[in-house]
Amino acid sequence: MRTHKHIILQRPISITAFIVLFMVTSCNPNKNNKEFSGADGEVQIMTLNPGHFHAALIQKDRINQVDPEVHVYAPEGPDLDLHLARIEGFNSQNESSAKWDVNVRTSPEYMRLMLDERPGNVVITAGNNRKKTEYIKRSVDSGLNVLSDKPMAIDKEGWELLVSAFESANKNDVLLYDIMTERYNVISILQQRLAQNRDLFGELEEGSIENPAIIKEAVHHLYKQVSGEPLRRPPWYFDVEQQGEGIVDVSTHLIDLAMWGSFPGKIIDYKTDVQMLQANRWATEISEDQFEKITGMNKFLGYLQDQLVDGLLPLYSNGDIFFTLNGHHTKISVTWDYEAPSGGGDSQYSLMRGTLSDIVIRQNNLYIEPSPQVDHQKLLRALEEAINDLQDDYPGLSYEENQNGWKLIIPDQFYLGHESHFGKVAEAYFGYLVSGELPEWEIPNMITKYYITTTAREMAMDTD
Known about the structure:
Blueprint: E1 4-8, H1 15-26, E2 45-48, H2 54-57, E3 69-74, H3 78-91, E4 101-106, H4 110-117, E5 122-125, H5 132-141, E6 145-148, H6 156-171, E7 176-178, H7 186-195, E8 214-223, E9 225-226, E10 229-230, H8 240-243, H9 251-262, E11 274-286, H10 288-295, H11 302-305, E12 313-325, E13 328-339, E14 347-353, E15 357-362, E16 365-370, H12 376-390, E17 398-402, E18 405-409, H13 418-435, H14 442-462
Parallel strand pairs: 1-4, 2-3, 2-5, 3-4, 5-6, 6-7, 8-13
Antiparallel strand pairs: 8-14, 9-10, 11-12, 12-13, 14-15, 15-16, 16-18, 17-18
């Protein structure tokens, strides 16, 4: 079992110590390593202030390109303790799992310390979102690659700083990328591919605000299980000034899927290809008992007290956004309930409306539903041809008929599970490091995605 080494720095580094540290790190051949070949161990991770379990999930599975010695920079506290416990849990798993040596550096000035020492070449950030955009900007300014959990910006000022961060990353020849796990869900992949089949799907409808052509809806739960254990969320998660509102958080995944699924490989420019129409937000009320069950804290902390209404915390975790993508009406909706009903869990609904058929995700099932005026037998032949074409990638894929059309039967082996998607994102990102660039559409589309979320937040607040 691997262990972690913990060094605590409570005082600012002296000028003399800083000079010595600079000389040591300047001689470190890995300090400014921008050349990646795909070799084992060449990616050296520095995890910055991990406050969200997604930071640990990047390390759940072994990736040979990643050095097993990783570095964590954070203030002392429960966020760090939970992160280290998760990594230790991975270390305790079977022999096929990753085994990590963790160097922990705790200090009130953890960000500056990381930039001074620079023992790695990739920064992982997933946690409190209040300063995340600033952390991203400072990291790329210093010539470090960044793989960031969503959201990378939670308000308009953050979005403007993020745009500057992408400019800085380009100038310094480093890659900034966000963790879009849902692209690796087999359901999302197949919806995208079938929607590109003109014989089966036709063309994407234009839709209307009342009847959108693209709908992405998700229902999540604050209290749930992760890796078989109740998920412990930090208290700051319930402060929208630190976590961000729901309309700028999970909606990033849904907007990403709308763009990636409908217009794969295409640049979507927020200035010319997006029209914002309407946005709304509403609160889920949290009691003190519920807060304690999720966080372990027996009362609302001071920074939440001023937000209480009749003893309940109105958490603005819910929202919907209406806009157009390349002229096609799109609806994004996110809802957070406290806890799922017995036997239930997080749920999703996704509709892509075509001139020949609708491609629909309901929970973990994918459906093809013909338009009323279409010849069903002709469409069935198109579906059979599409499934045959997918056999190389998804052997055993089939379908069954239902009252609305057809349900795709996807073999269980292709359902990786949400936690495994993080490793897939990391592998793709590390591959981009080897090529030295992201696909040309990724950066403009990330900028557009966060433009939509942060603009929607302003619109929703204006309509309160």
